[in-house]
Each structure stands twice: as C-alpha cells, then as structure tokens.
Amino acid sequence: MPQLASDLSQQVNQRLNQVGPSGIREVAQKFSTIPGIIQLTLGEPDMNVPEHVKEAAIQSIRDNDSHYSPQKGTMYLRKGIHHYLMESQGLDYDPETEIIATVGATEAVCASLLTILNPGDKVVIPTPAFALYFPLVTIAGATTIQVDTSNSNFVLTPERLEEVLDQEGDSVKAVLLNYPGNPTGVEYPQSMIEGLAKVIADHHLLVIADEIYSELTYGVDHYSIANVIPERTILINGLSKSHAMTGYRMGYLAGPAELIANVTKMHAFMVTSPSNPAQAAAAEALHNGLQDPVEMRKIYQKRRDFVQHAMDEMGLSMATPSGAFYAFVKIPDSYGTDDVKFAYDLAEKAKVGGVPGSAFGAGGEGYIRFSYAASDDDLAEAMKRMQAFLTHKA
C-alpha cells in the first residue's frame, strides 16, 4: 500500500483541512459496528421507489440512453421540474434558462455556494441546521454566521434576522434557509416567510432556499420564499425524500436566468451532467407522480405521532415536527448539555442510534436527533429500549 511522500503532506486545500467529516455519517458509521443496534441516524426513507418511476429508469437503460445529456439535464426532466413547481407552488421557471438538474440536492447546495461566495463573504444560517452547510461555506472561503434559534421555537424570526444583519454589516452575502428543517422538522408559516423576505430584500441579499422536504408536511401547506422574492432566490429541491430516491441522486435548483448561467458553469465543472437513467426516473416522478408522496406523508405523520407520544411517556420534550421525518429531542437533565455522551450511552447500552444535536451547530447542544424514516417495528422496539434505558438510569 503506498504512503504519501512526507514532503507532500501539506499539499492540500487548506480550507478543507479546517473542516471535519460529516458528523452525521461519522456517528452512523461508528454505531453500525454495534451488534443489534437500531439505527435512527440517517435521513434515509425506508420506503420503496414507486414502480412507475423504477420502470422509467429501466426503460432508459433498455433504450441505450447512455450518452452525455445536456449539462443542465434533459429537457424532458427540466420540463418536469417546471411542471412540479407550477402545480405545487405556482412558481414559473423557464426550463431552458432557469432550471438545472443536479446530482442530488447536495450538489445543488454546493454549486450554489461556490458560485455566489468570495473570500470574506458571510452567510447567515439559522441553527441547528443540516451539518453539510457549514463546511461548504468554509471551503468557499466565506464565513458562517450561525444564528441560534433554540429559544424561538427553532425558527429565524424577521426581527432576529434584522438584528444579525445590523451587527454583521455589508459583508453578509446570503441567507440559507432549510424548511421544513433538518434536524427539527419545523416548518415556517407563510407570514414569517413574507417577513424574512422583506428583510432579505431590504438588505440586498440572496437567499438559498433548501426545500427538499417540501412534500413532507403535516397539517400545514409549504410556502416557498420564491413566491415572494424570486429575483433573490436560489430554490433547491430534489427527489430523495418525496419519492424515496436517495440512491438515484437527483436534485435540482431554479432561479433567475443570469444567476443560473453562472451556477451552470460551476455545476458543469463539478459533474458534467447527471446520470441518464436517474434523470428518466426523476422526470417520470415529476410529470406523472405528483400524488406519490401522499401516502408517504400519512405514514410519516403516523410515525411522528407515535414517537412524540413515546417521548411524552418518557418525560422528554421535543420540537413538534410539522414536516420532514426527524424528532429533535431534549436529552435528560442528568446529562446536562452533553448530547455526545448521551448518544453514545444510548447506542452502546440500549442499542438505539441517534445523532448528537451538537452536530447541527449552535442551539443543538443538549438535543439528539432521531429519524423516524424507519419501519414501525424498528421504531416500536427502539422506543421500548430507550424507555428501559432511561428507567434503569433513574
């Protein structure tokens, strides 16, 4: 096995050295070695891709659809994205100039940040937030301004955003919003989105709106900020959550044509173009599968209610998710804010895996995230084990 020459040990992007690996993946990997553990760590739907969507991918392979697609994705897929955004949110984007198909929403976030940021720029991110965002901002040479929302029901209010922008000055370039949110599952009401949009516009900022969980809401309608300030919004979404297509790696972004032209360049440098069979499947989902998430929503809502009831029985509080499939739970008082110790104790002694809240930034300390995108049987057993562990600890 070759070893790197000692004189090359520092020949890497120094910004990359400033960030660690994904805290979520790191914990999931470590816990996976524990025999018999029930993993509630990853946001990985346990449901299957709809049959008609799978058939579209298979047909693409049969048709020898094996050559490079246009860099922004096939026109049929981009028209499908246009169709979905019009039907679900009333948003009108030109498939030719304002939409890009990406390799997952992850690539869409990365390409967007690398396009808009310069060294010295700042990005406001309400936290706790998906851990991916922080290292990407760092690698782009910018600085993350984490805004702890744990004392405001895990939402960034317009008033708090105004305060932060006044403090940070003109170097703030963008606000990154993810809602319904990971790790909390909290959705922003329309009135708050409209208030945030006004502050963003008043301060001449961009907003990156990661709305990957928009199809998974319970009792509330998702309202995109692109309805209010489309001229300032990079809208990101994908098929991983709505159609259980995590392994297909299909996402997309939409925005003003001038901005999308630059994001397209970055996207093309990174991946050239997405996989053709995956694009065919995504196009089928968006053209003909808009009702596919309906049954999934019902299942997730039932699981949410089950987990929330279980946490109530254990005397643990959690943010009430109105979307996504995460329970963000306050750890027992006996652990203080040491969510890492609690997560490891729970994994090793109760064989239940969750992600320490501190992995999600400021305001996450003292919490643990469980994904209820798991089978009913696994969830029932996990809650039973957790109850026994807490009873024994007491």
TrEMBL record:
Domain Aminotransferase class I/classII large: 37-385
Needed cofactors: pyridoxal 5'-phosphate
InterPro entries: Aminotransferase_I/II_large (IPR004839), AspAT/PAT-like (IPR050596), NHTrfase_class1_PyrdxlP-BS (IPR004838), PyrdxlP-dep_Trfase (IPR015424), PyrdxlP-dep_Trfase_major (IPR015421), PyrdxlP-dep_Trfase_small (IPR015422)
Family designation: Belongs to the class-I pyridoxal-phosphate-dependent aminotransferase family.
Transferase as UniProt keyword: yes
Protein name according to UniProt: Aminotransferase
Record-listed E.C. numbers: 2.6.1.-
PROSITE patterns: AA_TRANSFER_CLASS_1
EC top class, as a word: transferase
Keywords attached to this entry: Aminotransferase, Pyridoxal phosphate, Transferase
GO molecular function: transaminase activity
Gene3D superfamilies linked: Aspartate Aminotransferase, domain 1, Type I PLP-dependent aspartate aminotransferase-like (Major domain)
